[in-house]
Specification:
Two copies of one chain form a homodimer. Helices cover 44% and strands 15% of the residues of chain A. In chain A, the strands form four sheets. In chain A, strands 3-2-4-7-8-9 form a six-stranded mixed β-sheet, sandwiched between helices. Chain A folds into two domains: 126 residues, Aspartate Aminotransferase, domain 1, CATH 3.90.1150.10; 241 residues, Type I PLP-dependent aspartate aminotransferase-like (Major domain) (Aspartate Aminotransferase, domain 2, 3-Layer(aba) Sandwich).
Chain lengths: 380, 380
């Protein structure tokens, strides 16, 4: 017998309590039961996103929510800046291309980040830029971009800051209103510990003003319409009811733990995983601030990282993930976001030690776990 | 204690077996387990839609799938015919407007249908029309439109026939390839007995040829891209994993019952519900072929139909639905689609008798149920 462990950088495990809540009989979305559910969710999401704005919940995955952020605030021919330092930036680029936007690309090598000063310069050099599209946590590289500093730059301009927070919401501090982020884009299957299928979007007043000017065609993901219904606590179309039912449970769990504690937990798990990997002599991939959502590790010299991923699955029934694009075969990525605790880090590091040994890498068994335990032993 | 009964024309109840399958631990979508699941689903959906084409499964609800049918086969400025005889036709109109299509509207009063000859004439009069957008089952009126005859008309032209089968797939016979339907659009929460959040789309060769010419912008719901991945049995983006897990169970249930038997069951439930309503002296709303998915009934003279809906909820904890737009307050609608059996019809009619009496309508208790029982007693 092996216990299956989902430790990919998303989708992430769903707590049994949430799965069982979602397994309750289906309810209709125009009933008092759903009204109460939606009201509670709307209030909870405002606390989670730390905003006074309604957080919209269209039935789509993160990519749909990213597309909605673009199609609702921009028009064909508009110029945008894309901060490109990983695979999910490629998705911004693909969306921008599909909808006829002009792109000023600010590149950094995978594993690195783009300094806020470069954004400031690019905005100065391209005053027609209407939006800056970035990732907060770039889960393909394991890097956390400095969205707070980016927002300080965009706040002083007419451009809006659109943040892909798919793998940071409920994981890393991102107080939307306090920092001045204009669009927070997220999804259900990472920090929110839910099945994929629900998008999350919050827009600042500045972004809603941009939405008024936007002429890109949209209907299903028309956020202006969606908001009108949400403000009446009504669903515009049939919502993803079962995921909404799960979302209420998740928001209660997050409230019970306390949002600052949720962030602290992720930081600890992340630090412990990194300490464990380094104690095994491995090199971390990020050259800058690591994301607390996942740990990206360079495979040891001579080892194909995809073999590490395969051995996690074959020998331990653990799903982790490999690199994408330029990092394929070079890095492996261990998720510790959402429904993740110290026990998961111990499991992951124990498996890592065994996998490395299996692949012929000399390993001091227990060294990685010891590295993590030292972090856990610190006063929290 | 009351047992909650979801008898709306969607969302519909999800079988406990399916809910519990969906409550199993989350799996990753790039694993052998998901590969096997997706392969089984793709084969099962081809049997369900009766097509050789891949049936695509984007993470969205029915409206998203309707939008995708339009944005993937048409271009701004294209002319389309919309068969407008109910509230869901309004959705085709809204989508057409949002994406800059020219619309030739063929109207019929709610409760009625548009004869295929009118479509033939309109196509002759407007040879530039590229698509005919229709509902199969119009759940706002309880009417089943004659898609088979519509397809005979469109097959002889260059226009594609796009069918909203949201409340007919797995309910009413709709053999896509045999009839020559070009786009079948559906969703998870009606005949497929699943939570909302999954769209279904199948395109004929003629529709795929139209897709090649289509210039409307799209990314998240780009079906040409989606198909490339599906053909490799891969997910383009993170799929709605939990609903996909449920879908496998549902397809197994449908296979076990046999698709012809599934259609026969819906026809029987529909006939029995109509017989019951008529035995109570009520008038049915459809002036033409009724949909087997639901029964739309005119409220007795002097009774607001919305009071009937409210009394179903208040006195019996049963969710049915009222009219929309021009039929609001005039009709109530009882769903019997998907996970619905004779026992549900008995429950609905018993409650209907009690509700009518509660609202002051003279009722011969048992007469409605007797009407249904006579249908059930026929040799099936």
């Amino acid at each position: 017998m092996k216990k299956y462990q989902l430790m990919a950088p998303g989708p992430t495990p769903v707590p049994s309590e949430v799965l069982l809540a979602m397994a309750r009989p289906m309810i209709h979305h125009r009933t008092p039961a759903y009204d109460a559910l939606f009201r509670e969710i709307r209030a909870g999401l405002k606390r989670l996103v730390q905003t006074i704005q309604d957080v919209l919940t269209p039935a789509c995955t993160g990519t749909g929510a990213m597309e909605a952020a673009v199609t609702n605030t921009l028009s064909a021919g508009d110029s945008v800046i894309v901060v490109n330092a990983g695979a999910f930036a490629q998705r911004w680029l693909a969306i921008a291309k599909a909808f006829g936007l002009k792109v000023v690309e600010l590149e950094a090598p995978h594993g690195d980040t783009v300094a806020p000063e470069r954004i400031a310069q690019a905005l100065k050099a391209n005053p027609s830029v209407r939006a800056v599209l970035v990732q907060h946590s770039e889960s393909s590289t394991g890097v956390l971009h400095d969205v707070r500093a980016y927002a300080q730059v965009t706040r002083a301009t007419d451009a809006i800051l659109v943040v892909d927070a798919v793998s940071s919401l409920g994981i890393a501090e991102l107080p939307m209103d306090a920092w001045g982020v204009d669009v927070v884009v997220s999804a259900s299957q990472k920090g929110l510990m839910l099945p994929p299928g629900l998008g999350l979007l919050a827009l600042s007043d500045k972004a809603w003003a941009a939405a008024k000017r936007s002429t890109l065609p949209k209907f299903y993901l028309d956020l202006t319409e969606e908001r009108k219904y949400a403000e009446k606590n009504e669903a515009r179309f049939t919502p993803a009811v079962s995921i909404m039912v799960g979302l209420r449970e998740v928001l209660r769990m997050i409230d019970a733990e306390g949002l600052p504690n949720v962030f602290r937990r992720h930081t600890r798990l992340s630090r412990a995983t990194r300490a464990g990997a380094e104690a095994l002599g491995l090199e971390l991939f990020p050259k800058t601030t690591p994301s607390p959502a996942l740990t990206a590790v360079l495979a040891p010299r001579g080892v194909d990282a995809d073999r590490v991923v395969e051995a996690f699955a074959a020998s331990h029934d653990i799903t982790i993930d490999g690199g994408r694009g330029p990092t394929k075969g070079k890095i492996f990525r261990i998720g510790h976001m959402g429904y993740a605790t110290e026990t998961d880090v111990v499991i992951a590091l124990s498996a890592l030690e065994q996998v490395l040994a299996e692949l012929g890498v000399p390993v001091d068994f227990g060294a990685g776990i010891r590295g993590a335990q030292k972090v856990f032993a610190e006063r929290s």
